[in-house]
Fold:
Amino acid sequence: MAPAASTKTTVQIIQPVSTRRRVIMGITFLVFAAITLLVFLPNTASDLTTSFGLTPGGLKRGAVDNWVVNSQLTLILISIVTVLLGIYQLVRGFGKRTNAILGLVALMFVFAFLTYAAKGKSVNIGGLISSSLSLAVPIILGAYSGILCERSGIINIGIEGMMLMGALVGALVGSVTKSPWVGLLGSIVSGMLLALVLAWLSIKYKINQIITGTVINIFGTGMTSFISAKFMQTNEALNNTPMFTRVPIPLLADIPFIGPILFNNNLFIYGTILVAIVLQVALFSTRWGLRLRAVGEHPKAADTLGINVIKTRYMGTLLGGMVAGFAGGYFTLGSVGRFDEMMSAGKGFIGLAAMIFGNWNPIGAFGAGMLFGFADAFGSKLSILGSVVPPQFMAMLPYIITMIVLAGLIGKGHAPAAEGTPYEKE
Amino acid sequence: MSEEPSKKQDLGKAALEEMKPPKEKKAGKRRPFGRALVIPLLAVFSGLVLGAILIVLTDMDVYAAFGQSFGAGIKAAFDSVVVAYGALLRSAFGDPARIVAALQGGDALEIRRAFNPFLESLVVSTPYIFAGLAVAVGFRSGLFNIGVEGQLFIGAAAATFVGYAVKGLPAIIHLPLALLAGAAGGALWGFIPGLLKAKTGAHEVINTIMLNWIAFRLTDWLLAGPMQRPTSGGMPITPEVEASAMLPQFFGAPIRFHLGFFIALLVAWLMWFLLFKTTWGFNLRTVGANPNAAKYGGMDIVRSTVIAMSLSGALAGLAGANQVLGVTHSMAMGLSSGYGYDSIALALLGNSSPLGVVLASLLFGFLRNGATQMMVATKIPIDIISIIQAFIIVFIAAPALIRAIFRIKAEKADETVFVRGWGG
Structure:
């Protein structure tokens, strides 16, 4: 799932490829191949095998046997394919497909690394992808929140604050009513209220939107920590959140490999996938989406055509806040079961990064979020496997990738043209 | 808004206008000092009032008292605020009664203890001054440095490393060296987004946010790996810096008041001089106020952007170095209590002027130090300060809101645009 989505992302980002970029990419592929050949291969004995688990731990439905491969042979195969791709890229170039091939090469490299690191042992790929997905959920939802706001022309860097608020209110309301559904409603409404503040200050008072977003973050962090310290730490009954349980989808959950990973989850993971599809269709194939994007790109033109710019911006921002609140609910109602201060741990900011990496497209953001989630899950896997790469460096990857994308080294994204500027009717 | 078109039509004229010495241009517009203070003061006041309302709303005793009678409820609400803010003031400035008693008693330790709250507030204010200046320099040059937190961590790590790894130097060399290392570390972390912005147009807000998290992960790794104290027993903390790298403290325990405060004031003065009394600072401010005019006037925008971000980062790095060398003497992850974000509030509150930032930093320092003790005395979590700060930022950033509340007549709009969208 992860690889397919992430390659799609890169396809959408790319621009026509320059000669310089073609050569750089070709060399990059060859470097990957060289590492596989010169570092992994010599240290792998020919009789060792690597065993890949394909079902996340603890699940029975759709379980399949481990996939056992000969470590050395796999590494040789991967390096041959990578070398061929690299040579073709250097000589002819893959043109528009360059970044898709880059994704493929990177994926093969990760696979080669896993084969090498777990030689003679086993590694659970199913579990790895599954935990990538659950780590990616708040990132992806955060990115959606950003997309909804920014496509309408309002910069939202307050996603983190909205998430924290959603998490706290979800935990509090859920604990009091003993119903995860009411808790979730609370999460969504609280995210929406903070978005209302963002929209109101940005639209009515024309405050710099970065400042407004920062205020939302400071307020969100301060308020949640305040309430948590004042009430929830002293009264555990207020912080005993009911959680959404796993709901396997009939038939689909029995598909080998994919079923347990995708179709045996809780509401939030289904919700994330559903929102991705709905948002993609709504933004790019409906009149509603066209209008929202028009307001974000060229509000004056949109206004001339009779679109209510102010109303559209409120709508986009409020929807964005609701999604951020939903994402916050995931922490308490879908993942942990209680509220802890600062529990969103920067996921809102990675969501912002995923939004940029995904070029302000829902499907792209989904791919980017999965990639970032995978980097996170892979990092913790690495530390278990006893790798030399510290998990902290893996955790840095999303940020570094985003900076590279932003600098235009992989392919430049395009932000909505009018975001950040208040609209003034003349 | 109405001036925009004509300015764009004649860029040359606009550029010339910008080139004129600032004195001439501002002579007619100069506001009396008192006027300039009205909005900030009212913003702080409103923030404190909203904080008080929150204290009352979350005080269960108040609800209980309202259950008895309306009068009792009002009294309880009033008491609740007085007790909380009273504790805040006492622990920010010191208890007058205790100071008098201590002076009469003549016991040296007791005198130090009595004066400690006030001096401790100054200690808390010090990193705020550095961090606030960092954001202010950015604002003045048209850049939004949200990365103060990350720059602070990198600066602190660099200063700590020089502080404990270099041995045998006299303090007169070691301390400046450690401070410089802190500034250099922060400058590097500011240089990166500055260069990216200047060369590729990548927006500094996103890049500094990303660099913040990279800095957190990096220090996370440093503290648990290469820089870990051998005797820490697995705790992520560095060795203590050498005594020669510590900022000297002026009084005996428990007073932690150290040289850093005066260095901060000196740096603030230096920033004022740089920004407002040198050609270099004039260029920087022109690029910030009107990049088109600056370009037309032949100023090097790339250089200005890179230098401004590096300088901003260096100031943030000094904030980190100051904390390590002056207060904690070793580095752990809990180094910063959110100075990075608070600094944005400080720069806004101080109108990005060094003097303003110093005053705002003192205010925040006293508030935060007071709140620490208020938490002990009244069980009101210290996070209330963050909430009050959020309110203050809103009121400063939206003067229209303050004017609406207090019915002040609007002055001519001269609000600065600090940043443009990601594309700009």
